[in-house]
Amino acid sequence: MSRGDVYTRWGRTSCPSGDIETVYTGVIGGGHYSHSGGSNDYLCLPIDPHWDQTGLTASSVGLIYGTEYETSTSSSFKHLYNNEAPCVVCKANAGTVIMIPARTTCYSGWRVEYSGYLMSQHYTQPGSKETICVDASPEATTESTSASQDGALLYFMKTSCGSLKCPPYVNDKILTCVVCSK
User: Fold this and answer.
1) What is the pLDDT of residues 127-153, one digit of tens each?
2) Is the bond leading into 101 cis (omega within 30 degrees of zero)?
């Protein structure tokens, strides 16, 4: 049996090079930013879904939407604004994978899988989404357009001093992240 742990590389269509196996590629999905119910997790939806063949129907449901980058005010990622975000699920040749917020490097003894920026929905939107580590070199899906479709949205996360102590943190800074394996 091969050992290893799986992780999602948010914002990219391929796993890092080396001994990393691609499990599947996909698109980021999630609940609509304005809905108070439904999914509060981002999901890596495979690009090749298999549908139920039993004919199951339901009228009271939760909804999953595609996810767009909301980066119009960013200094580096304006070109991705309103484009749909991809993802890839990777299997590392390691026993443990962890995402560490507010870091660009792993602690001693750990290997960097990828680094990036913490992203989630806007703080004024209802409900809440998980915070994910989006790759520092994000891509758009191949079918993406810059036309706003809304759905689930990704905004950069910033620090807010008060109960978060500054220092060591700095107020109003974009938060980084790193995914590490061991």
Assistant:
1) 778 899 999 999 988 887 777 787 888
2) no
Query: Cα separation of 27 and 140, whole Å?
Result: 9
pLDDT per residue over 78-107, tens digit each?
A: 999 999 999 999 999 878 999 999 999 999
The SS3 of residue 14 is coil
Q: Is 92 exposed, middle or buried (0-12, 13-18, 19+ CB in 10 A)?
A: buried
Model's pTM, two decimal places? 0.87
Nearest to 40 by CA among 141, 171, 100, 128: 128
Integer CA distances (angstroms), 113 to 16, 18, 34, 83, 93, in order? 7, 10, 33, 24, 11
N-to-C CA span, the chain: 18
